[in-house]
Amino acid sequence: MPKKTKRQTRRTPSQMAATTSVASSASASTSAFAPSMTTAGRTSDADFNPDYSSTLKDLKRIGILAGSFVVILIILSFILH
Questions:
Q1: How far is CA 13 from CA 16, 17, 44, 59, in A?
Q2: Strand, helix or coil at 25?
Q3: pTM above 0.70, yes or no
């Protein structure tokens, strides 16, 4: 029989923030979490601009192949019956 393990519960962001604020206020030195929380910023939407041209070409090719296979199957079904 496998050994039972204790499950960890998920913490909500408010619980994690409360934990880090208590830890940082309790100690006199700077916490390791404090600089990363203050300097972390979000990038703007203008910075993220992916190029999906090759993906669109592949999707068109797959669509054309699938459509032609369906048409061939329909034609074959009329010929065989």
A1: 5, 6, 23, 39
A2: helix
A3: no
Tens-place pLDDT, residues 34-80: 555 555 566 666 788 899 999 999 999 999 999 999 999 999 999 99
- Structural domain count, the chain: 1
Q: Is residue 45 part of a domain?
A: no
- Residue 23 CA, distance from chain mean position: 31
* Residue 2 token pair: 């496998």
| 45-48-51-55 Cα dihedral, nearest 10 degrees | -90
**Length in residues, the chain:** 81
Tell me if 10 is assigned to some domain: no
